[in-house]
Specification:
This protein is mainly alpha-helical and 274 residues long. The protein is built from eleven helices and two strands, in the order αααααββαααααα.
Length: 274
């Protein structure tokens, strides 16, 4: 029976989740149990575990009213119950699933919840959001990064840092100034902030100067935190222990900086046009 209100899950989500779960579960019966207990219906699709998982996810919209709800329950055990014998494989798989969900404005939350699936319109790309300078949409980007705080603090820090890098690149491209050869966070910030007038040395008010100096420290700290402990770089034998409170601090600090940057950009544009 086809449910008129049900929308199919994005094909890349079905493909990657199916590949991860199908490769992780060698038993057909355990995989079938996951689907039926998660709310799936219909006959078991043919094929190996990977093909079976992918096919079932792709057809969920034909059989259930809420495919994301079933998806959340299907991956709940994999996302939340650590396997001592497959730790590395499980961690890699979790990151793949979070990444592909994030591409479509979705996120996994504790309890088998997939959030963001009810959005009426496709999620804008971060570049589009920043070009439009829509603070409400930027807030949503930071909300998405906060979804990783408890489950994967390093991934949350990576997301916060990526928002900053994207913002500075958009500003440099839109204003036509020369892009730095090194397009990592600190060089991008140095180029964009200097052009926008954030250089503390150029400000007379001592209180404002202190705040602007603090922004430099925020960028430097977030960039270093990502380098030493995020998912963006390989971790050594003694990994930097990023905790949820560190990630939350980085995200909120980034959010404050982005908001001030965008408001200043708009103010400068209004003055130039008047």
């Amino acid at each position: 029976m086809t449910h008129a209100l049900a929308k199919p899950l994005p094909v890349p989500v079905c493909s990657i989740v199916g590949d991860v779960l199908g490769g992780y579960h060698y038993s057909h019966k355990s995989l079938e149990r996951l689907f039926y207990e998660g709310g799936a219906s219909g006959e078991v699709p043919p094929g190996n575990c990977v093909v079976k998982c992918q096919s079932w996810l792709k057809r969920l919209h034909e059989e259930v009213p809420n495919p994301p709800a079933v998806l959340g329950k299907v991956i709940e055990e994999f996302m939340e119950v650590d396997n001592a014998f497959k730790g590395a494989e499980q961690q890699t798989g979790r990151e793949k699933i979070r990444e592909v969900l994030g591409r479509f404005g979705l996120s996994y939350h504790i309890g088998g919840l997939i959030l963001g699936a009810a959005a009426a319109l496709p999620t804008k790309s971060l570049t589009q959001v920043l070009k439009a300078r829509d603070l409400g949409e930027v807030d949503k980007e930071f909300e998405r990064s906060l979804t990783h705080v408890e489950s994967d603090p390093p991934a949350a820090i990576t997301a916060a840092c990526s928002i900053l890098e994207s913002l500075f690149k958009v500003y440099i491209e839109d204003t036509g100034i020369e892009m730095s050869a090194d397009q990592s966070l600190k060089p991008l910030w140095k180029t964009a902030s200097k052009h926008l007038g954030f250089d503390p040395a150029a400000v007379e008010d001592e209180d404002v100067k202190k705040i602007l100096s603090g922004l430099n420290s925020v960028v430097d700290g977030i960039g270093s935190l990502r380098t030493h402990g995020s998912t963006a770089h390989g971790r050594g034998r003694r990994p930097y222990r990023i905790q949820a409170r560190h990630a939350r601090l980085a995200i909120h600090a980034s959010h404050t900086l982005v908001g001030f940057f965008l408001e200043t950009w708009d103010e400068r544009k209004r003055k130039a046009e008047s």
